[in-house]
Amino acid sequence: MSTPALRTGHVGLNVTDLGRSTAFYRRVFDFELLAERADGDRRFAFLGRDGSLLVTLWQQSGGAFAADRPGLHHLAFQVPDIEAVRRAEAALRDLGVQPLHDGIVPHGEGASSGGVFFTDPDGIRLEIYAPTGADIAPAPVKDAPTCGFF
Predict the structure, then answer these.
(1) Under CATH, to which class is 73-150 assigned?
(2) Which GO terms describe its molecular function (predicted)?
């Protein structure tokens, strides 16, 4: 019996303020708004590109993301090149979001892949990375993967 190939369909995130989070994800990731319900007690937004659903936002939580609990560690998005990472970093800075490391950093010491690490308005840890071009800076953690410890 062969197992069919799997790939992630989309990621659903709980948020505290749908409007704020929708604006943030659209600005940083250049997502299209595919569908939304912004009123009533069942608020959501479907975000994607070229008609493909990538992220769903659900306004059904309070408080902030708890990094010290089991569950999502971080959500990473790959972009084609380091210039796309730089554009995302500029969008983050325009929004007043400071990266969790010193700007664009490699995934590990000597690695060419890497990117920028940050949190969304609810504290959900996010990463935008490119497969090459991040070896312009030292790794923030010498003996462990950068994306595992932020």
Answers:
(1) alpha beta
(2) dioxygenase activity; lyase activity; metal ion binding
